[in-house]
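Appendix B. Raw example, untouched.
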Amino acid sequence: MASVSAHSHHTSGTGIGRRVLAGAAGGIAGGIVFGVLMAMMGMLPVIASMVGSDSAVVGFGVHLMISVLIGLGLTVLFGNRFLTVYGRGALVGLGYGAIWWVLGPLMVMPGIMGMTLFTVDLTALMSLMGHLIYGVILGLVAVRVLKSQA
């Protein structure tokens, strides 16, 4: 009984190691789902072109690395504050996915590729859907990992 009581008193929040694990797991889970959607739309070679390739496999790898880094950004910085319950985790993930849609495909990627910034067309709207799905999965998986016992 004493060990249960000692485990239930978390006054300082979740440790950095647990937040890193949550971000990596959430980033991979969301990234895989989003990556499958991108593969179905033929978008992975576009991602690969950011590193000088046209391979869908390379594109998927680049996409997963980005997905993990973005996941870590959310959980390491905000895990203790915003990722405590599933409902909030899903909403925070949704908003985070929307922010990264603006930053990624509307700003950074076209900037790297010498294309027009803030182009919103059907492809961009499909990308928005993928980013929102990614964000919700990231948020939910992160909450699950953060709530689990070490």
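End of appendix B.
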